[in-house]
Amino acid sequence: MKNLFLILCMAIVFSCNKKEEHKHPHPVKETMAVNPENPLNQLKYHNKVDYYCKMDIKLGVSDTVTYKGNLYGFCSKTCKEGFLEKPEEYLAKN
Fold this sequence. Notes:
Mean pLDDT: 81
Largest sheet: 2 strands, antiparallel
Strand content: 5-15%
Radius of gyration: 19 Å
Oligomer: single chain
């Protein structure tokens, strides 16, 4: 009985330690074209890629955030929210 409890506890611990990977909120196509009518695509951004999903923002921007005086572009609201959870961590990587 003691061994069964120990095995169960270890299984719980190992299943909780899995690193959660975020998935892109929408399919990314390299052939995506910039919509010239979207005013967000005309702005100048501090970043060249979406820091959350690594998509090239030349393919289009649908959300932005100003952080510490810099304007950052993101391909989706989900990516912007992911960035805002740990902005210093994402900026340190880039």
